[in-house]
Amino acid sequence: MKQIILSIVITLTALVAMAQKQRTQQATPYEAANWNTWFLDQPQQITIVAPPGAAQSKAELQSIKQRMVKLDEKKLAEIKYWDAGAPAHRWNQIAPKLISWDRFDIIARTPTAWMNIAVYDATILAWKEKIKYKRK
C-alpha cells in the first residue's frame, strides 16, 4: 500500500511541476501538445505514419458505423470499461495487481509512477500528431 501511495505522490509531483511551468506559456485549444515530455529527449524523432486521406477515412467511418450497430451488451460493457477515464485510469487499477509485493527491488522502482509518465508522454505525442495532421 505504501508503494502505491508513493507512486501516486511521485506522479502527482511531476504533474504539478509541469503545470506550474505551463502557466507561463499561452494556453491553446490543444494545450497538451505544448507540454514537455519526461522520458523522451527528442520526441520529434518519433514519426507516425500519416493518417488515411479523406476517401479512405470516410470508408473507415462507414465501416465503424456498420459494426457499431452489431455490438452486443458484452462488447458495449468492454468499451465502457476502457472509456471510463483518463488514458492511464484502468492501467492504474491493473498494475498493482501485477506487482510482486514480495520483491522489494521491484517495488522500490515504483512501476506505476513510470507507467504514468510513459502514458503522459504518449498523450503529448498523440496531441502533436493530431495537430500536425489536422485531425478532429
Note the topology.
Blueprint: H1 2-22, H2 54-69, H3 73-82, H4 89-98, H5 104-107, H6 111-132
Give a structural overview.
The chain has six helices and no strands. It is an all-alpha fold and 136 residues long. The model has no long low-confidence stretch (mean pLDDT 79). α1 (2-22) packs parallel to α6 and α4 (89-98) runs antiparallel to α6 (111-132). The relative contact order is 0.18. The longest helix has 22 residues, at 111-132. The chain has helices at 2-22, 54-69, 73-82, 89-98, 104-107, 111-132.
Question: Could you describe the largest sheet, including whether it forms a barrel?
Answer: none
Q: Work out the radius of gyration.
A: 19 Å
Q: SS-based structural class?
A: mainly alpha
Low-confidence stretches: none
Question: pLDDT average, as an integer?
Answer: 79
What are the key terms here?
mainly alpha; 136 residues; single chain; 61% helix
Short structural description:
This protein has 136 residues and is an all-alpha fold. Helices cover 61% and strands 0% of the residues. It is built from six helices and no strands.
